[in-house]
Each structure stands twice: as structure tokens, then as C-alpha cells.
């Protein structure tokens, strides 16, 4: 038999053992941290299409210039209000017409369903009448046969 050799292999742990964090906290000094300064980049507004209304400065001048500015502002506000009112009126009109159309369609569907019911009922009544007629004919035939025999 062969002799077996025993080899000693040292295995390193997968996770190195670290000293406890409590000990490190005690040794570290507290140093204030300054906030990093961020550079602000200029914004490129060449492609933006936002409309910015500039407030009209009220001048203390007396005369027609100040009055014209105020009248122009009032007329612009009046036109804006009329446009908004017109949009609301159109939206209201569209809502009412669409609701009336939906009501009309539902009523049409109800009538069509009722007509189908009526047609079906009439058809069934005709079939029942035909069955009664055939039954009466058979009764009459059997009665005639019985009378002929006696």
C-alpha cells in the first residue's frame, strides 16, 4: 500500500475581518465639510417660444398717451374674455349635441329591439294558429272516419 502524504493548505477567508466601526469612530476627528460650488450654465433661450407679457408701466404723465395705453390694455383684456367665452360656448354646444345624438341612437336601438320582439311574437302567433288549424283538420278527419264506420 502506498503511504499518503498529508499536505497542509492555508485557506484565506472570503471576507476579511475588519475592526469594529466603534473603534474607528472614536479615533476620527470631526471636520466640517463645505458644500461644493456648482457652476450655473447660461440657459439658451433662442429656441423657446414662450410668450411673456411685460407689465405696462403706469406713467404719471397726464394726457392722451397714458389714456391710450390704458384703453389698449382694456380692449386686449376684453378680446381675451370674448375668446374664452366663445370657446366655452362652443364646448357646451358640442357637449349638448353629442348627448342629444347619443340619446337619439339609444332610442333608435330600443325601437328596433321592440320591432324585433313584435315580429317574433307575430310569427309565433301565426305558428300557433297554424297548429290549431291542423289539429282541427285532424279532428274533423277522425270524426268523419268514425261516422263512416258506424
From TrEMBL:
Annotated ranges, domain Remorin C-terminal: 87-146
Report what the protein is called: Remorin C-terminal domain-containing protein
Q: Which intervals carry biased composition (Basic residues)?
A: 84-93
| Chain residue ranges for the region called Disordered | 1-21, 82-108
Question: Which Pfam family, any one of them, does this sequence belong to?
Answer: Remorin_N
Residue stretches in coiled coil: none
Q: What family is it from?
A: Belongs to the remorin family.
Question: Which residue range or ranges hold the Remorin N-terminal domain?
Answer: 26-74
Q: Where is the composition biased (Basic and acidic residues)?
A: 1-11
Source organism per entry reads Lactuca sativa (Garden lettuce)
